[in-house]
Amino acid sequence: MVSDNLSIEQIQNFEGKYPKQLWYLFLVEMWERFCFYGMRGVLTYFMVDQLLLKDEAANLQYGAIQAFVYAFTFIGGIFADKILGFKKSLLFGGTVMILGNLLIAFSPSTMFYYGIAFSIIGTGFFKPNISSMVGELYHENDHRRDAGYGMFYAGINVGGLLGGALCIYLGKYYSWQWCFLSAAIVMFLGLITFLLTKKHLGPIGNSPLLNLDSNKRKVREIAVYIGSLLSIPLIFLMVKNTDYTDYFMYTIGVLAILYFIIETVNLKNIALQKKLIAAFLFIFFYFLFNAIYEQSGGSLSLFAKDNLDDSLLFFHIDPNVVNNSSNTFFVIVLSPLIGLLWLWLGNKKIEPNTIIKFGIGFLFLGASFYIFYLTRFFASIKGITSLNVFTFAYLVTTIGELCLGPIGMSIITKLSPKRLFGMMMGLWFLASAFGQLAAGKLGAAMSNSDTGNTLMSKLQSYTEGYYQLAIYSIIAGVFLIVITPLVKKLMQEVK
Questions:
Q1: Where are the extended beta strands (E) located within 48-184?
Q2: What percentage of the chain reaches a pLDDT higher than 90?
């Protein structure tokens, strides 16, 4: 059988733990995440070091950029559902991301915001659609789906580890041109990988308008491409002025909720509606998690820049490299161990359900930020504290993330009707967008609370902020565990 002609049944009726298509998508996502996390990891550092922004302004800009990136995943998901299909969305998004990084590489200081605007559009079309394709590799009731998303999540973090470490290293010690050029090169590798392997996906990701007249379909597709590119100047203006970002995000938030309500009502099936409400609850708490967790690219990046020594165990290493890559490193190491733990607990009939896992994730997140707070007690008189304690906090953060992140995407696809996969994955990433926006504002508030001009005063203001975030995380975790029976009723047979 020629791969181009594979049916969805042939793909889903695979033997073993993983379908072969998962490995192709794993590689594509790995290269794209190198590009994304490489960019994310340098944003605040670059803006402070090269654009000469103050910490507060850099945190707000970081939140705005990340908010737009994830907000456009919602828009990209809708266009994929209704017009382009996942495959064409991915190719378009990847191409635009390459162009964005090349623009910045050409002239980092002058072209930064223009390149960022391109990258926002590109990621919006790329990210939700490859995640949705993973879900379509499995039957609705295939218990192997969680394992598949777990492996896919590993691909995300391998790319994040490589990109997070290499891009900041190239930028700090060689040139910012090489930093952004490297991101463009690996994104190009990702697109080549997809073009060479997409035939094995069969009908997965094809345009939903295949039955429409080809000329009419092309007109709609071209309209999406042109409309997206024409929005770049507007995105440029809104990213530079964070007040505009707020207006945009609040507007798209209201519209997204209304769209979700309309689609839920249109289902006219109470059982499916309950499942979508449960999915929305998971999405809401994912927003809260990200508002705290995503300090890594903002306040923690600036904290690493100024307040950490360079001694990690028996080695000397740049603190920003550790900040950008330790989380992804721990994910790669711990993911299989956490997965085996769930399997062992499952065999013992004591595995916690998804909502409990979310609650546990918040408790570990709270513990990690309490450890970030404790770094103040290891500081020298100059305000320089221990990289070892800082890294240990990331280890605890990662355990919390692994209780939530890998199963989050999986549970959304389990609870959503197939025709709404794109919208629901878009909402999942939109929640991340609002989390990123909130994270930037929280980081800016920490910076603004600094009443002095010394490294010690900066250390005290940031660590006090981390203490507050620890409390919020623990409250959210306890609340989730308490409401578990209610959410289980909404989820029905879904585990």
A1: none
A2: 52
